[in-house]
Protein 1
Amino acid sequence: MVFFFQILMDGIATGAIYALVAVGYSVTFTTMRVLNFGLGMWVMLGGMLTYTMHVSLGLNIVVTLIAVVSVLSLMGIVAERLTVRPFVGAGSEGWVMATLAVGLLFVNVAELVWGRNSLRVPAFVGQDVLRFGAFGIYPQNLLIIASSIGAFLALEYFYYHTLWGKAFRAVAHSPDTSRLMGINAGGVATASYALACVLAGVAGILVVPITLADPQMGTVLGLKAFVIPIVAGLASPRGILICGIAYGAVEGLISGYLFSGIRDILAFGLMIAVLYWRPDGLFGQPSAERA
Amino acid sequence: MLSKLMRLTRIAQAALVAAGLYAVPVNAQEPVKIGFAGPMTGPVSAFGNEIKRGIDMAINAVNAQGGVKGRKFEVVVRDDEFDPVKTVAAYRDLVERQKVLAMVGTANSAAMLAVTPLINDQFHVPTICVHTDATAIIENAAKAEGRDNYLFRLGMFGNGQADFLVDSMVKKFGHKKIALLTWTAGYGQIGRKELTRRLTELGMKPVADETFETGDTDMTAQLLKIKAAGADVILHYGTIKEAVSIFQTRKKLGEPMAPFVSSWGIAVPALWKAAGSLAEGTINSNVVTVDGPQSPERQALVAEYYKRYNQEFDDPASFFDAYDAVILLSIAMDKVGFDPRAVRTALENIPSFKGVSLSVDHPVFTRDRHEGHTVDDMMLGRWTDGKFLEIQYDAGGPYITPVTGQKKYIDPVTFGLR
C-alpha cells in the first residue's frame, strides 16, 4: 500500500509539471490555431534565467520571477511578430518550422552561454522532505501542484471574467468578426503568444529545482507536455490539468508495477488509443461544432 | 673508409657547432609535432580544453629538459566540435598535412571508434587515448588479427571498469545483493551489459535491474523496487542530471536506502556542483583525484595548474592522463627516435613508469595489453563535503584520508563515515 501511494503521489507531482507546461500549448491554439512547437525550450530559458538571476546574481526569487516574466513576455512578442505572424498572415504553415527553429536556436545559444552542465537551483520553499508517516514529498512538488491548479483557475477566470479574456475567446471564435466588432485581433494574437511563452517560463522557474537547469531540460519535457493537450483536447485548460496529472500517475504506476523500460511505449500507446476513440481529445469539443 | 670520413666530418661539425660557426642541420631542430583533435569550442569544450592543458603542461616539462634528442615538442590542435565526421577530417589533416608523429585521442568515444581503423590501416601513427572508455577502441580489428595496434589508452576502459566496480563491491565491501540502475541510452546500456557479465562470472545476478530515461525527474518506482528486492548497493551507469534525480528521490524515500555507486562518467567536479550535499557519501570509480593528500609530483602539478589557468579542474583524469601520455611518448622517442612505427613498438617496451596518473613497476603497455591502467590501477572515490576522496583499504576496512594523517573508515553497509 505504501508502495502504491508513494508512486501515485510522485506520479501526480510529475504530472503537475507536465500540466503546467501543457497549458502554454493550449493558450495559443485557442486564440490563433497556432502551436509553439518550441515551447519546451521556453521552459528551459525560464529555468536558465532563474539560475543566472537567483543563483549567480543572488536575486530574490520574487524579483527573479518578475524579471523572467518581463524578459520572456518581450521575447514572446518579438517571436510572434517575426516567426508566426508573417506565416499565418500568408496562410502558410511555415510557423510549424519557425516556432521549432526558435526553440532549437535557444538550445544552441544556451549551450554556448551556460555550457552543457546541469546547474543546481535550490528549492524556493525549502529543501527538506515533508513526511506523512511512511510517505515523503518535497515542498517544491506541492508548490508545482498548487501552481498548476492556480494557472488553470487563473486562465478560466481570465477567459470568462475579463474583457481581454472575452476578446481572446472572440478572436478564437472568428478573427474577422471580432475585427469588425473593434477587437484588435492582431494584438490578441501577439498577447496570447507572449502569454504562452510566459507560462512556459514560469513553469521553468518552478520545475528547475527538481529538473536542474541545463540547455536540454525543456526538450523531453516539452514533448511529453505536448501529449497532454492532445489527449485532453487543446482548448480545455481544465482537461489539461486533469490529463496531465493522470498521465504522470499512469507513468509512475507503469514503472512501478511493470518495468520502467516500457513506460513511454505504454504511455504513448495509450495516447494513440485515446485519439482513435476521441479525435478531439477527452475534453475537446467535436470539431464539427466549430465549423 | 667512408664511415671514417663521415666520423671525421661529424667531429669537425661538432667543433664548429661548439664554436658557433656551423648551423645545426634544420631537421635536428624541427619540432616534434604531437597532434590533438578534440572539442575546443561548443558545449563540451571543457573536456577538449582540459586534455589540451594536460598536453601543454607536459610539453613544457619536456622542453624545459631540452626536448628529446635536441628537438622541442609542439602540439598541433584541431577543433572537432565533438563531431565524429570532423574528427576524421581533423585526423587526416594532422597526419597527412601537419605530419604529426604521435597523437593524443579525442574526447568522444564514437569519434575515437570512427578513426581507430584509419589509424591502424592508413596513418600508422601511435595514438594514446584519454577520456574515451569504449572497450572496442583498443580491442580493435588490428589487435584481433594480430597486426600492429597503434591505439593505446590511459584511463578507464569499459569492461575493466565494470569488473572493478563489481569486484570492489563484492570482494572489498562484502555485498551480495546488487541492484543495477542504468540509463537507457548507449552508455548506460553498455554499462548494464558489462556489469551483468561480471556478476555472472562471479556466479551472481542482479537482484533488481532498473532503467531510467533521459530527463526523468523522479525515480520513485525504480528505487522502491530496488528497496523491495532487498538490495545492498546500487550500481549506476548514467549522466549527472539523472543521477541528481536519483539522489533527490533517495532523500525523499528516506532510510534505509541502498548506497549508490557509479562509473567515472559522473566522477567530475560538475557532479557536486549539480547535486550538492545530495551526493555526500556516494562512490564513483576513477583513475585519479585532485582532492585529499597527493604525491609531491601531483601536488606540484596541481599548484602549477591553478597558477597557470586560474580555474578549478573540469575533469582531472583527462588532464593527468593527457600529461602522462605526452611524457610516455617522450620516453619512447628518447629511446628509439621519431619514426612513428618504432615509437609504437617502443611504447610496448617501457619497463616501468612513475607518472601523475599512472605509476607502475611493470611495463606500461605490452604487445597484448594497450590499456595503461589495469583494474589494479583504478580507484574508488567517496564524495565527502564537496571533495572526491580516494578510498583505500586496511584491516579495518575501507577508509578515506580527508587530510594527511587523518583516517576515516567507511561503513560498507551505508557508506557513512565512522
Protein 2
Amino acid sequence: MKIRRRDFLKGVAAGTLLLAAEQNPAQAKGARKELPPNAVGILYDSTLCIGCKVCEYACKQANNKPVEHGSSGEPMWDDPQDLSAKTLNIIKRYGVEGKKDSVEGFAFVKRHCMHCIDPACVSACPVSALVKNSDNGVVTYNKKACIGCRYCQVACPYNIPKFEWDSPFPEIVKCQLCSHLLAKGGISACCAACPTGASLFGPVEKLRAEAKRRLAMQPGEYYDFPVADINGTEVQQHRAGGYVSHVYGERELGGSQVLYLAGVPFASIGLPDLPEDSYVALADGIQYAIYKGMVYPLVVLGGLIYIIRNREDKKE
Amino acid sequence: MKEQDFARVREHLDGISRRDFMKFCTVMAAGMGLPLEVAPQIAAAVTAPQRPPVIWLSGSACTGCTESLLRPSHPSLEHLILDLISLDYNETLNAGAGHQAEAALQASIKKNTGKFILVVEGAIPLKDGGVYCMIGGKPFSDIVRETAGKAAAVIAIGSCAAWGGVAAAKPNPTGAVGAPEFLKGKTVVTIPGCPPNAYNFLSTVLHFLTFKKLPALDDKGRPKFAYGRLIHENCERRPHFDAGRFAIKFGDEGHRKGYCLFKLGCKGPMTFANCPALLFNDVGPGSWPVGTGHPCFGCTEEGVGFNLPLHAQADLKHITPGAAYPHIVSERGEGASAGAVALVAGVAGVALGAGVAVAKNLGKTGEGSSSEGE
C-alpha cells in the first residue's frame, strides 16, 4: 500500500477543516461559565453558627451514612475529624473561644461540596461519573459510571471528594446537596435542621442578594435572618456580627453555589484565597489553544513525517 | 365547664374549687400530649355519675406499684379512689379482707362485665400449675384469665406485669411471665417501671374514659405519650455527655458536680420513658434516679432492667456528635517513625552506592566497546 505524500497531506487538510467546523465557538476559549438557570445553593454564615452540629447529624440521617469515631477513640460520639467517606458535612472550629477579633478570632465553619459553577471534578472525570446538573447546578455522582480513578480528588481545589478506601466496591463520596430530597420538593437536610439560619438554602441569586444585605448591616444591631429556606417564612432575629467584607464563593474560581460569610479572614477558616478564573478555564484554555484548528498537531505531525521520510530516503 | 354544671360535680369532689378541678384536667391533657381544648371533655368524663370501676389484681409483686399510685397529689389518693374511679378491688387498699373481699370482687365483676378496667400488678407465675402465687385458694393465673375475659381494657402496671420484671429475672424459678405474654391475643396496655409513674397510669385511664379508646401504643404496648422518648435525649445531664464529662466513680469530683452517669452504667441511652420530664412525687426538680445521682437502670425497658448488669455500660440507641470540634486543618498520619527513617536511609545509601558503581562501569564499557569496535 503506497500513499503519496501529496495525497496524504490533502487528506489531512480535509480532516482539519472538518474538525475546525465541529468546534463549538463558545468552547473555543476558556470562557467563564454562567450560573445554571435554576441554580440552588447554600449560604453559610459563620457568625450565626453556634457549632451545635445538628447539621452533621441531619446529613448522616438523610444520606444514610454511618457514624465515625475520631479523636477520642471512644465509640460514644460521632466525631469525625475531617470530611471522609462517612462524613459529607462537617463543622470545624477555628481559634480560641472568647476571642472575637479578626486576627486571633473564633469561628465555626461548615465544610462540604461547594457545587462550583465550573467544577474541576466534573472536568477531570474521564467518564462523566460526576456531572453538573444543567438546571439546578448540583454536582452529582453516578456510581455506575465511576471507574475509581480518583482524578476528581486530585482536581478539586477544596479537597472535597472522598474515596471509600475500605470498601470492596468503593465509591466517591461527596455532598450532593441532598438531590434526593430536592427531587421531592424538599431542601438540603443540613439547612432544614439548622436552628439559627447559619445554613440557608435557596436560589443562588437570592442568596447572593441576601449576603450583600448582610454585609451592609450595622454590627451590633438586630436584624431579621431567614431560617432554613430563603423562600420560607421562618425568620429569626439576631444581632449582626461584624463581617469580613467579602462573599466567599461569589467569584472564587469562577464562583460556586455554596457561599460563605464570616467574621474572621476566610483563609483562617480553611477557605484559601483563590483566583477568579477557574482552573478548569485555564486548563481548557491551554487545551483549546493547542488544538485550535488542529494547527499545532499538524505542524508536529508534518515535521515528524518529514524527518522520517528524510531518513528513509538517506538509507535507500 | 359552666358554673351550674360544676354544681353537680361539687357533690362528688367535696371541697375542691372549680378552678383547681379544671387545672387538674388541663394538666392531665398536657401530660398526655393532647390539646388543652380536651380538658373539658376530661372534666366531663371524670365527673360522670357512673365512676369507672377498676379492679386491681396483685400477683408476684412487691406492691410498689400500688404505693406509687398512692403518691400523686393531683389528684390526691382519696379523690382518686373515691371520686375519679371506683376502685372496687385492691388487696392493699381493700377495707374488707378474706371471703368478704373476694365476694366484693365477684360482685363487681358480675355487675360491670365488659365495663371495668382490669389492672394487673405483678408477674404471673406459671411453673408447676401456678402454685407459686395463690389467692383465695386459686392460682393467680386462673384469676387473671377469668377476669381479663370480662374486662373492657387490661392495663399491666409495673415491669413485673409488663414482661415479668424482677420476678422473671434469671433464673426465673417460678416461671413468671408478664400479662401481655400470658393474655396473648388481647390488647394489654403496659405501664412498665419499677415503680411506674402514677401519672402515666392515671393519664392512660383518663384517656380511655374520655375518648372510649386506648391511647396510641408502641410495639411493646406502652402508651406513646409516656414512653415515646429516650431518657438520654431528655436528660438534664445530657450536656455533660456531649462534652465528655463523666462521673467515673460514685462520690468522685465529677459525680459531685453532676456529670453524666453513663460510665457508671446509666441505661438512659437505651431506655424509653418520660422520667426526666415528669419526675416523681411532685417534689420538684431532680426527683428521679439520675437527678439524685444514680444511673438509670432501665426499669421500663424489657431486656434492660433486671437483665443487664447494673453498672455495665449501655448501648447507645442513637450516636450523635459530641461537643468537641475538629480543627480547620486536620493532621493526618503521625510523622515518620525511627524505623522507617532508618529503612529509607538504608535504601537511599544502597541506591547511591549502586549508582556510583554503575557510573564507574559505564565509562569502562564505553572504553571496552570502542576498543572492540576498532
